[in-house]
Amino acid sequence: MTRLRLLASLAVLIAAFAIPASVFAHPSSEGEGYCQFPDGTLTAGHCSASDHARGGHDTHIPPLPGVPPPSGPGGNPLPPSSNPPPPPPSSNPDDGSGGGGGSDSTPVYTGIDCHITHAARPAQICSVEGGLQYWFIGADGSAQPGPFLPDSPRIERYEGTNPMTGKSVVIDYVVEGDKTLLRVSTYYPDNEYDTNKPYVFTLDPGHNVRYISW
Question: pTM here?
Fold first, then answer.
């Protein structure tokens, strides 16, 4: 009886591995692969048989931009793009746009109309008149204005460094299906448990955030 059970278990395992490889194979030209679940979460790599059983399906986006980590204090972070984005638009105090008040070139962080909601984030993006305002976030939660991302014309790529953490920041756009998504690639601040942990997310036209690495 025990031998019969072992043979039956072995048959089940062989049948599972006999699933044609074409079910999970995807050409590398499609870009980096992820397994996407019904709730929108993603894991790196293609879906396994158990992932498919839980409703996961393979999806691809172009490869993430290279964001080499800075070499630490005194290192050489990525230089800004040769085509820096325009300065943020001026806004009036208490206009509710999320841009805050202040001078014509420096917005004031209010936390209004912002899209990254979890704690300990190293970046924030808020809706303002004419586009989006990116904010550098420090390890203590304080903020400094980063690039303004106009609705039109879109920037092609922004490369810089969070002055509060020394972490590289790359912002660009990727196309997924019929949507053009804003993509941000940066890192959490270093601490005693974590060194250069990636923080990568996309923002779709409806301002829905999808985390890829965090």
Answer: 0.55
